[in-house]
């Protein structure tokens, strides 16, 4: 079904339809389109286009559709709908009849697709931030393991000065740190809602777009309707960040390819990320790294294509903008795959410490130390540089490293050189001399490594903010508790009970809107229970429930509670957070007294899980 057929007397040509339709790729926006539609239905309720009953029916049907789509997104591709918007509307009409035709009131596909795409970008960007963090964590872990391993440093692919493998790892930590920061900045700028901008001039209904934006999890609404429907800066920014990060991945891949080569032999890559030759059985090819290096081109191509598409478009929406999605999806998918593959490649990396040390000692990498030694003896650096160059030539002619020249041989080049030169020329002294911030001296590497560990450990990559509840949150807490108790997932709690227990609650918050809640109920035995866990339906699958439980776990630890339990049907979720199955019979009798009020008490399908803090390994 097309959403625009009113003025047309003929059907579209089949070839044009194939050329024009976007469902084959924008089906990925199904969840976002449904979430946006739920928020729009609430705004239509505010302006009396929908009744409360109609809005509730639409929300229930849309949530059912969302669950179906999440379970099987490929089902959408079986349709001949023009795009994801028409598919969702058709499915909704099939569920609720003509009521579904009311939903598009005051809304255009222009602001609809702009909103869907921003919602998708927010979600995908947060996933990529997690992958960036994991890769940095892996590099820091590798740096800690191989902190004492010496590695030759290169300029112009020639051995220059010795560094350490840890220092090499930390160099890429810094590169990916900048990528991480760019992604955070991108998220801040794209965190505005276009919904309510209409086709280009704004919606004709007096709805509060700020509330609408907050209902969708955006920081604020966009300020200009013309800009809102035509803005694709966030697409370009994300692809640009992906391109620069792919550059960093490619440089790291090139280093690892070189280090893995037979000529270097510094590392051996795992069998899991390498392949063999169909002809030469001795080969072990670093295919994962070569593919990362190769995939940079397709990400760069997507960015270039997007900028060329946008460069001369007039305001506001133009069909050219349909070309924004395929390149974006491919670029971010490729980047994500490469981040994951890079992390995997580093996981089982073997470092040949003897070979790296041997290489670091060769190539006259201590020549700069000899020059600094001469400077300390009063010789100007330029003259010292010339003297050392001549000494290197002499050592090459003898076929020995600098440190194997005798004092008499050194004096041919400068009579200030004495036996005290030899301690300066050792590998250890060469490293230790680089004491300035950011250098390779062991103390500086330890400082950099410890700083990186602390910085990464403080990060919250969930994108969800959990905090202790306040009295001003009571209405939202009551709403959430009632919703999930009516759904049969939680026990009901009266308003007066919630007022007394507000100090037990934690809430999640998105742009000032409370989106989830849970409570920590403490028994006089020192036992505590997770209760009343519930999240707004439109914010499901965004990590809110995990953030709430983790907040309560930390709170319980601070209170010196030794045993935390939960009665739940979502056992897998809690087990991923460290809980283990236990028997209800092991719980005190008073714990189960609330079950007397539950309609499922005689056919209970909840299981008991517990977390024992004094045996739990803290990370």
Strand and helix map with partners:
Blueprint: H1 14-20, H2 23-26, H3 30-46, H4 52-71, H5 84-96, H6 109-145, E1 150-155, E2 158-164, H7 165-190, E3 192-193, H8 209-215, E4 220-221, H9 225-230, H10 233-260, E5 267-268, H11 287-310, H12 324-347, E6 350-351, H13 353-361, H14 367-376, H15 381-398, H16 407-411, H17 427-432, H18 442-457, E7 465-468, H19 474-486, H20 495-501, E8 505-510, E9 513-522, E10 527-535, H21 544-558, E11 563-568, H22 571-576, E12 580-582, E13 607-612
Parallel strand pairs: 3-4, 10-11
Antiparallel strand pairs: 1-2, 5-6, 7-8, 8-9, 9-10, 11-13, 12-13
Written description of the protein model:
The chain is of the alpha+beta class and 619 residues long. 51% of the residues lie in helices and 11% in strands. Helix 6 packs antiparallel against helix 18 (442-457). It is globular. Mean pLDDT is 90; it is low at 615-619.
What's this entry about, in short?
By secondary structure, the protein is an alpha+beta fold. The protein has helices at residues 14-20, 23-26, 30-46, 52-71, 84-96, 109-145, 165-190, 209-215, 225-230, 233-260, 287-310, 324-347, 353-361, 367-376, 381-398, 407-411, 427-432, 442-457, 474-486, 495-501, 544-558, 571-576; strands spanning 150-155, 158-164, 192-193, 220-221, 267-268, 350-351, 465-468, 505-510, 513-522, 527-535, 563-568, 580-582, 607-612.
């Amino acid at each position: 079904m097309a959403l625009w057929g009113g003025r047309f007397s003929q059907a579209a040509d089949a070839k044009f339809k194939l050329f024009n339709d976007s469902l084959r790729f924008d089906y990925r926006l199904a969840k976002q389109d449904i979430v946006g539609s739920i928020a729009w239905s609430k705004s239509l309720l505010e302006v009396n286009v929908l009744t409360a009953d109609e809005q509730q029916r639409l929300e229930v049907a849309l949530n059912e559709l969302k669950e179906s789509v999440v379970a099987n997104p490929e089902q959408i591709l079986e349709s001949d709908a023009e795009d994801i918007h028409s598919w969702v509307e058709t499915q909704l009409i099939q569920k609720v009849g003509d009521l579904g035709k009311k939903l598009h009131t005051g809304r255009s596909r222009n602001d609809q697709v702009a909103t869907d795409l921003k919602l998708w970008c927010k979600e995908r960007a947060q996933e990529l931030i997690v992958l960036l963090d994991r890769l940095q964590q892996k590099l820091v872990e590798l740096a800690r393991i191989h902190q004492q391993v010496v590695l030759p440093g290169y300029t112009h692919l020639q051995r220059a000065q010795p560094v350490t493998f840890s220092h090499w790892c930390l160099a890429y930590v810094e590169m990916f740190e900048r990528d991480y920061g760019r992604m955070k900045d991108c998220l801040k700028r794209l965190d505005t809602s276009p919904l309510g901008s209409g086709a280009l001039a704004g919606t004709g209904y007096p709805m509060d777009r700020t509330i609408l934006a907050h209902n969708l999890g955006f920081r604020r609404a966009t300020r200009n309707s013309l800009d809102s429907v035509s803005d694709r800066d966030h697409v370009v920014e994300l692809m640009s960040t992906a391109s620069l990060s792919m550059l960093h991945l490619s440089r790291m891949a090139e280093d690892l390819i070189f280090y893995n080569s037979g000529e270097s032999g510094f590392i051996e890559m795992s069998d899991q990320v390498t392949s063999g030759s169909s002809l030469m059985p001795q080969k072990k090819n670093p295919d994962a790294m070569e593919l990362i290096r190769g995939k940079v081109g397709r990400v760069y191509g997507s960015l270039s294509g997007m900028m060329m598409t946008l460069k001369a478009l007039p305001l506001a929406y133009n069909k050219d903008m349909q070309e924004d999605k395929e390149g974006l999806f491919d670029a971010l998918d490729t980047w994500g795959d490469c981040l994951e593959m890079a992390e995997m490649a580093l996981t089982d990396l073997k470092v040949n410490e003897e070979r790296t040390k041997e290489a670091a000692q060769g190539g006259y990498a201590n020549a700069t130390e000899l020059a600094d030694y001469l400077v300390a003896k009063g010789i100007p650096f330029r003259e010292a540089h010339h003297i050392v160059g001549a000494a290197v030539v002499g050592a090459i002619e003898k076929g020995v490293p600098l440190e194997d020249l005798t004092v008499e041989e050194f004096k041919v080049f400068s009579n200030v050189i004495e036996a005290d030169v030899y301690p300066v020329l050792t590998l250890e002294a060469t490293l230790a001399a680089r004491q300035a911030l950011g250098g390779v001296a062991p103390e500086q590497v330890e400082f950099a490594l410890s700083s990186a560990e602390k910085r990464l450990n403080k990060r919250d990559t969930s994108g969800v903010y959990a905090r202790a509840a306040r009295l001003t949150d009571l209405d939202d807490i009551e709403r959430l508790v009632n919703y999930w108790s009516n759904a049969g997932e939680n026990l009901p709690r009266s308003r007066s009970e919630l007022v007394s227990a507000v100090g037990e609650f934690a809430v999640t918050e998105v742009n000032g809107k409370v989106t989830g809640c849970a409570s920590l109920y403490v028994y006089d035995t020192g036992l505590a229970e997770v209760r009343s866990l519930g999240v707004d339906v439109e914010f499901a699958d965004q990590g809110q429930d995990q953030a709430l439980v983790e907040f309560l776990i930390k709170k319980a630890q601070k209170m010196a509670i030794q045993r935390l339990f939960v009665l739940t049907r979502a056992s897998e979720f809690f087990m991923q957070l460290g809980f283990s199955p236990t028997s209800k019979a092991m719980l005190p009798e008073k714990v189960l007294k609330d079950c007397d009020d539950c309609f499922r008490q005689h056919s209970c399908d909840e299981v008991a899980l517990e977390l024992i803090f004094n045996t739990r390994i803290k990370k």
